[in-house]
Amino acid sequence: MARNKLAIASISLSQYPGHTLDHKIRAAAQAGIAGIEIVYNDLLTYSKAQNIPIHTAAERIHTLCLETNLQVLSLAPFENYEGSTTPLKERLALAQHWLELARLLHAPYLQVPSIFTADCTRDEKTIISDLQQLADLASSNNPVVSIAYEPLSWGTNCSTWESALSIVQRVNRPNFGLCLDTFHEGTRWWGGQCFSDGSADGRGDEAAGFAEELSDAERFQPLYSLAHPWALPGEAKEFTWSKHARPFPLEVEYGAYLPVVEIARAWIVEAGFTGWVSMEVFDRNMRDGRVSPETAAKRGVEAWRKVQIEMESKSRI
């Protein structure tokens, strides 16, 4: 059975404002989860609730994680960076702020999703240069923070693992690698853009990856159109899908149907990935406070158990 350490994103433990970050951390630890991805907005909300600067909040959260034996895996998500039309100096200054917080949290990774705004350059040299400068900034102080680059299925310039792997190779920095998400891989796969036959040929080597995030998806009911109640003008269908209908893996009772096991198996079993596995879900039922962080944490642990069993079962076939 896969021995990857299990983490969970703080937002995946509840999207209800009354469920504070410290509550989520204790719930994750009590469920036996080993790590947590700190979502910036959760940290910001906690700092405001405590009436303390966000840097102080980061220090307190690190202390709490030490007390509960929970590893902070990453600070996330540093969005819309590479190729943005905002002056690079301003983007790097913002990155420096995030990196300071990551170091206070003792987070080894800064998670960076691929840019998804239309207001950006398509010039590959500029994109690679921007990411190299980010990686260099992240390695300019100790401890070095690694950049976990995640291809979003609705990304403007990078939306598949193949394109993300190519970017990682061209950035060519030891602290710059992949963060792969089964939701993004699965939704691109289903759209015929990522895998042709479900195989993992050409996926690159394990060294390119820092983390694997697991989530599932439910089907649009009714079928997606601009008249769908979730649809927003100008928003990509995959983004809408992601925000509202991403349950934990294999939660068929919540409509889960993506081939999460096949995708996870390609990386964890076939490619031999031994790094962190993290649950990153966006369940719309977690917004009103009826689902406690304790319940969400248990669901995450159970989902990982089911994925492990299914991967092992398929390996015997």
UniProtKB/TrEMBL annotation:
Return the InterPro entries for the record: IolE/XylAMocC-like, Xyl_isomerase-like_sf, Xyl_isomerase-like_TIM-brl
Task: Cite a single Pfam family from the UniProt record.
Answer: AP_endonuc_2
Question: Which residues, by range, are in coiled-coil regions?
Answer: none
Record domain Xylose isomerase-like TIM barrel: where? 25-306
Classification via PANTHER family: DIOXYGENASE, PUTATIVE (AFU_ORTHOLOGUE AFUA_6G00240)-RELATED, HYDROXYPYRUVATE ISOMERASE
Query: What is the protein's given name?
Result: Xylose isomerase-like TIM barrel domain-containing protein
To which species is this protein native? Penicillium chrysogenum
